Amino acid sequence: MLKLRSIERFTKRLRRDTSGISLVEFALVLPILLTLGLYGTELARMANTKMKVSQIALSLADNASRLGQTDNSGVTPTINENDVAAVLNGALRQGRSIDMETNGRIIISSLEYDDPSDRQFIAWQRCIGDLERSSRYGDDEDENGLIGDEIEGMGDGSEKITAASGQAVMFVEVHYTYSSLWDNPFGSGDGSFYEEAAFLIRDDRNLDPGLTGSEVSDTQCD
Q1: Do 149 and 121 form a contact (C-beta atoms < 8 A)?
Q2: pTM to 2 decimals?
Q3: Residue 155 region, left (φ>0) first, then alpha (ψ -120 to 50), else beta?
């Protein structure tokens, strides 16, 4: 009987004791808060990385469209391998914070128009980055638009980007493999980003020679 009374008194004191409520509530809520916090951090990092990939594509297309702009000679400028290599390496430097060289592949194409055949074609194409990805619009010297299937234009949308006679469009594709900070049950793990950008060349440019000083086929993405 004494033992039962002791247990009864203990349970009454336990019911009146509220000193550990906050700790218990915190222990129950902590896993939820931690999960949401980690997931939010992952989403923010992913969005920031995707924005950087998009900015690299836009900057490269813009820079490529300005090649030859500082040429003060009276001759319409041409561009060469060194010019293209410079802007491609600049794009890699811009992407150092996300390790673009290792995790990405940057492809630049010169979309032009051939008057005699009335066709859009890729005059030359160059790549940089260790990721193994190919262009969605060529990357094959036998399928550049003049040879092989006709190219209606470039771009993902229903309205394709095309070049006018005597003009060229600098078209950039950026592939990037994203690696998450940690695995989680919400599906924001590793993935691939793909961005496109295009700019019309800003000044007159002699397009006939293609890329001067080229040691590879102009339409080969080395």
Answers
A1: no
A2: 0.79
A3: left
